[in-house]
Amino acid sequence: NLSDKLDKAFHILKGHGKITEVNVAETLKEVRRALLDADVNFKIAKDFTTAVKEKAIGQNVLTTLEPGQLLVKLVKDELTELMGGEATGINLSGNPSVILMSGLQGSGKTTFSGKLANYLKTKKNKKPLLVACDIYRPAAINQLHVVGDQIGVEVYSEPENKNAVQIALNAIQHAKSNGFNVVIVDTAGRLAIDEEMMNEIANVHAAIKPQETLFVVDSMTGQDAVNTAKAFNDRLNFDGVILTKLDGDTRGGAAISIKSVVNKPIKFIGTGEKMEAIDVFYPSRMADRILGMGDVVSLVERAQEQYDEEEARKIQKKIAKNEFGFDDFLAQIQQVKKMGNMKDLVGMIPGAGKALKDVEIEDDAFKHIEAIIYSMTPKERTKPSIIDMKRKTRIAKGSGRKIEEVNQLMKQFDQMSKMMKMMQGSGGKNLMRMMGG
Ligand code: GDP
Ligand code: MG
């Protein structure tokens, strides 16, 4: 599935200190494949990965964590943006506010009409009226009445009337005289786009001038959904999209394609047959769903929060002046520790949970290093070059560690200082990795 694919994609990045053009390209190829699998249109998937690639190349690794995580965040942010960024509400400014449903037969219009009425009644304190304008099948009118009874919302219908425009206008009149402040008009759909149906809904649309025209689409229809959306939008210039049947394991890639092609916000999603199965559409949550990697993003955010820019600049200066000492080293360790428990952090990396199941991760991986540094005098910490054999022996005794460990730390520190001087640009950011973490 998509999640496995992305696991694999991000695995490619493991062990790379910097996101380079090559490993970004490899990873994004996988991301693109994953998007295509989730029914995202080919051109959109391609443009998307190109955009992410441009952002990723040359960007310094922001945290001490795997650069792959940064790419995850770039992908997620871009995906969220692509689906509209923020959640968009519906316009309820009319009196009454008229909402027109459009979409193919079976897309979920009647069900969603009921869900929306129930939502507005219970969550927004509105008094909605449902209107049955699917005049071709008696069963359709019945279906809406059943829904209305279920949620305690009145349904307006004229079973003998064969003029959808007239029924809609009469219903609005009825709403005005009876204190309804929202009118939800359910319409007829066909199995495929046809002129007759389009003309009818266009006529209803022109006559009632709704505040909101919503296009309802079954998220499982994949690529076809895009063409349908385009056809409806060309005729109705609708205000928003409703994605239904997002329960089960539909990835919802259609959401991305539709948004990109018609450039209208997705406003609600349907997640089941029950009247309560309605949710406001949040682009970032949908991005999580499509990427299937919820935790990773919070991990990256946590790391970025803890990473102190100011501190980094100070350290960079010190390196430049050859003044980087064990105190700074200690501060870096504290920084890393602030990010949280090592086991938790590792557990949040996709795939790592499995791979590291049998590996013992020390909760306090830095305990010994800290003990050794604490046993140094302030002078030794700021000027490590004065630490001779005699001092080493004293430090080892004081910290309760072996002299070999002190030697090893000194050696690591020495290598690290040299390396940091060499890679000035990225400063002390990569400390943890260099420590062989
Ligand atoms: P309409 O022809 O556009 O009015 O579509 P309906 O509202 O009659 O829905 C068609 C079928 O899809 C019905 O069996 C509904 O119960 C079902 N349905 C609608 N929305 C959802 C949803 O969000 N999830 C699931 N699982 N089924 C849904
Ligand atoms: Mg219907």
Q: How are the elements arranged and paired?
A:
Elements: H1 2-11, H2 21-37, H3 42-56, H4 67-82, E1 97-102, H5 109-123, E2 128-133, H6 138-151, E3 155-156, H7 164-177, E4 182-187, H8 195-208, E5 212-218, H9 223-236, E6 240-244, H10 253-262, E7 266-270, E8 278-280, H11 283-291, H12 294-306, H13 309-320, H14 326-338, H15 342-348, H16 352-355, H17 367-374, H18 378-382, H19 389-399, H20 403-422, H21 431-434
Helix pairs in contact: 1-2, 2-3, 3-4, 4-11, 4-12, 5-6, 7-8, 9-10, 17-19, 19-20
This protein binds guanosine-5'-diphosphate and magnesium ion.
Guanosine-5'-diphosphate binds next to helix 5.
Structure, explained:
By secondary structure, this protein is of the alpha/beta class. The protein has three domains: 2-86, SRP54, nucleotide-binding domain (Four Helix Bundle (Hemerythrin (Met), subunit A), Up-down Bundle), CATH 1.20.120.140; 97-281, Rossmann fold (3-Layer(aba) Sandwich), CATH 3.40.50; 308-434, 434 Repressor (Amino-terminal Domain) (Orthogonal Bundle), CATH 1.10.260. Helices cover 56% and strands 9% of the residues. The protein is built from 21 helices and eight strands. The chain has an eight-stranded mixed beta sheet, sandwiched between helices. Strand 5, helix 9 (223-236) and strand 6 (240-244) form a beta-alpha-beta unit. Helix 3 (42-56) crosses helix 4 (67-82). The two termini are 31 Å apart. The site of guanosine-5'-diphosphate (GDP) has 17 residues, from helix 5.
Question: Which terms summarize this structure?
Answer:
437 residues, alpha/beta, Four Helix Bundle (Hemerythrin (Met), subunit A), Rossmann fold, 3 domains, 8-stranded mixed beta sheet, 21 helices, elongated, disordered C terminus, binds guanosine-5'-diphosphate, binds magnesium ion, Signal_recog_particle_SRP54_M, ribonucleoprotein, signal recognition particle, SRP54, GTP-binding
